[in-house]
Amino acid sequence: MQNSNPTEQRRPRGFAAMSPEKKREIAGMGGRAAHASGRAHQFSSEEARAAGKKRHQRPDTTA
Q1: Is the pLDDT of residue 63 over 60?
Q2: How many Å apart are CA 46 and CA 34, to the nearest integer?
Q3: Predicted local confidence at residue 2, as pLDDT
Q4: Are 17 and 11 in contact (CB under 8 A)?
Q5: What separation, in Å, do the N-terminal and C-terminal C-alpha atoms of the chain show?
Q6: Cα–Cα distance list, 36 to 16, 53, 62 (Å)
Q7: What whole-number distance in Å separates Cα of residue 57 and Cα of residue 18?
Q8: Cα angle vertex 46, ends 44, 47, to 5°?
Q9: How far is CA 38 from the centre of its chain?
Q10: What is the DSSP string of the chain?
Q11: pTM to 2 decimals?
Q12: 40, 34 contact by CB (below 8 A)
């Protein structure tokens, strides 16, 4: 049963309780696994250039 005392603070759980270094380590393992299995996307120079160009365009405000 859950404690209903509103003054008692809840402790962070899961990733919220981890140090930034530990989170980075776990994320890196996932990235390496995705690349090793061939599921990760790798941008070509052209794709990266197009994405950067699209990101820095002004939004269309005529809608």
Answers
A1: no
A2: 22
A3: 59
A4: yes
A5: 52
A6: 28, 30, 45
A7: 37
A8: 65
A9: 19
A10: -----TTSPPPP-GGGGS-HHHHHHHHHHHHHHHHHHT-S----HHHHHHHHHHHTSPP----
A11: 0.50
A12: yes
Calculate the alpha carbon distances from 35 to 20, 21, 28, 38, 47 in Å.
23, 21, 11, 5, 18
Q: Which two tokens stand for residue 16?
A: 């919220």
Instruction: Give the model confidence (pLDDT) of 13-60 as tens digits.
Output: 999 999 999 999 999 999 999 999 998 888 899 999 999 999 888 776
- Check: CB of residue 15 under 8 Å from CB of residue 23: yes
pLDDT of residue 5: 64
Joined tokens for residue 59: 């939004």
